[in-house]
Amino acid sequence: MEYSFLLFAFVCGLTVKLFGIPPLVGYLAAGFLLNFAGYSLTEPLTAIANLGITIMLFTIGLKLNFRDLSRSEVWATSAAHTLLWSAIIGVLLFFATMVLTAYIGAVDWQSAALIAFALSFSSTVCVIKVLEESGESKTRHGRLAVGILVMQDVFAVIFLVVATGKIPSIWALALLTVIPALPLISRIINQSGHGELLPLTGFVIALGGYHLFELVNIKGDLGALIAGLLIAQHTKSTEMAKSLLSFKDLFLIGFFLSIGLTALPDLPMLLLALGLCLLLPIKAGLFFWLFTMLKLRARTSYLTTLVLSNFSEFGLIVGAMAVSLNMLAPDWLIIIAIAVAISFVFTSIMYRSSHSQYHQFKSVIKRFERDERLAADIYPVIDRARFLVVGMGRVGSGAFQSLDKLVHTNVFGMDADRAKVKKLREEGMNVICGDGEDVDLWDNLDISSVKLILLALPSIEDVSNVTKQLNNAGYKGKIAAIARYEDEVEYLLNHGVDKVFNFFTEAGLGFAEESLAFIGEESRSHA
Fold it and tell me: CA–CA separation, 403 vs 409, rounded Å?
């Protein structure tokens, strides 16, 4: 049965991808279509979905640090948005159901507030998936969005504990003993190598954190998140997160299917779910207003707002809990599930053109921007740079070091990951922090003396977007990029890149040339 579900999800995912729509939209559609065909949610599929969420939260923890959560734009926005949204939407729902009571039945103040609270969260699954697919999880707006999601998840866990009266066991204090064990865990990670043992180590730690928290009556998903946070500073945390990426994506297909298989709606429920989705502009407006009030740049505010403008799977959890406690009618769980699914579709489609939207409406959006800047939003400066490498991963760092040795002139690097930039600066490299897809950055960065920009980015969509922003900023130099597959080379050449290097072909050529040079040197030394 589960194979049939997976096969149908594959067909639906591939179908929507052919139309330029993210596959997760197809997975959601597959769940509802299977439900309509008479299939129901199975225990194995539920286990797969739960495992996907657990691994996802663990990988979120691997990419975070407590400094991100302590920023006012994270905790203040999260708390203020949850309170304002719950109050405004709670009142609207209460009066709306009074007017439409003949169709959907009236709800009391408590139920209206509970529904509003359930809809206040943004989807961790959807947002992380969208950010990872666009390669923006470590950008300024990506980190801000993830930080707010973590704070919202904490709010949800606290609410569930209070509402259910499930008080953590006194043995919860024993969880603190994990801290002295961190050096041992670190040694285990070091010994796991770089092969199949590394993702298995990640599974063991993630599920270990989950079950430890469950044993002391604390939600296990929070344990997986904290387990990731505790080892986030390890040198192999990024490698571990990448090794778990494919497993996480596969298991999350079960989650998307499970939403559609939860229940089948009738027409009034579908209309009401659509009505709830019409409230998303209010959610977006509150986020954007709070971000700009806290002095974030207009672009950061807009992109973070757009990716957070959806409803969350935690809404289903809160709704299911409320139904089990007779605080909410069962129909509302189905309505919330549909609204969550529709909001996923909205975010997945809208965010694909987010940078183009900002460029098109830039003059209007920037009217809300404050003159004062946060320290993290001050534009960097490059002094008479001749070469600029965008994306300081392994390939970008290698290109930077090679250029620095070959041309003996001003070479600069740029990356959106602040932690990586700080580390590279400590190693003596000229690296600035910036998002290459930010047209405002290029407008404020002096690139008049730059002869060549190398785009060492993993996604060809990112390369295409950066190229477009460079052209919009009036850049007159040359642009080079890397590609992993032959069909990507032609795509990038057709989208404004001057020279494209096939990563695997060029790596093989470089390896051969270096090897031949080594043999020649060795032969001369024996002559």
Answer: 9
